[in-house]
Amino acid sequence: MRPLELIECPRDAIQGWPHPVSTADKLAYYRTLLDVGFNCLDLGSFVSHKAVPQMADTRAVCNALHDEGKLEGTTSTLVIVANERGAKEALATPGIDFIGFPLSLSETFQLRNTKATSTEALERLQNIRSLVEGSDIRIVVYLSMGFGNPYGDDWGAQMVTDWTGKLNELIKPEVVSLSDTVGQASPDLLKDVFTTVFNHFPNQSIGAHLHATPWDAPAKIQAAWDAGCRRFDGALRGIGGCPMAQDALVGNLATETIVETLGLHEKLDLDMRAWNQAMSLAVDLFQSA
Fold first, then answer.
1. Of 10, 148, 164, 217, which one's alpha carbon is 20 to 30 angstroms from that of 102?
2. Domain of 17: which CATH number?
3. What is the pTM of this model?
4. Residue-range definition of the domain harbouring residue 180
């Protein structure tokens, strides 16, 4: 059985935040998050600055953390890209371990999110795989709208399995993360889909990037765990959501809820001093939440 992996996603918390977050504030927050002991920190994106202005300083943030020696610890780093240009920027930036790429089961959302059809997005992803060959960068593919969508596009559990198989054949990503982009999946649906995918691809690292309200998050986390998922994305205080999805954002899984729920099953080796400091900084950073 794979060990539990916790991925902290301040990028997803900040990208749709309605108030500008300065580079200095990001750096103060990220320094502390890097001390907590998360497996991975999703800290930025190389996408259109016009579309996601909060992430325009990702290279500056990464360069500063690298120069300070903060990226040399056990926490790996991840950035989101939507095309080859973003991947080249990630390759040129020191300290990046993972590239995350959003590939949607909903054609409507793929066009809305990356201005590409799903077929075009898959071609971009194949080009990105070629670009990173020979480097140490690994690929996480987020299968967004993985549990349905609000746009009326076709969806079914078989689509999730088919796309995972296609990715294994063409891309061989290190991780496929199933994403409940708009937070509409029930615990039963989550368990069924994760179970099906794990049955078909027992050797593939499968993650959970779920959105949820505070009251239904524990049941969703437990459902994914029961189905065999051991990689969970979260954000402290549950802040965030995709600004390219529906207008009413459903927050990320609160990392503290993941820790509370899964700490019953597995011992978590986290620096509680850094954890408490990060929680305090999150309160200040997102004080109008």
1. 217
2. 3.20.20.70
3. 0.94
4. 5-285
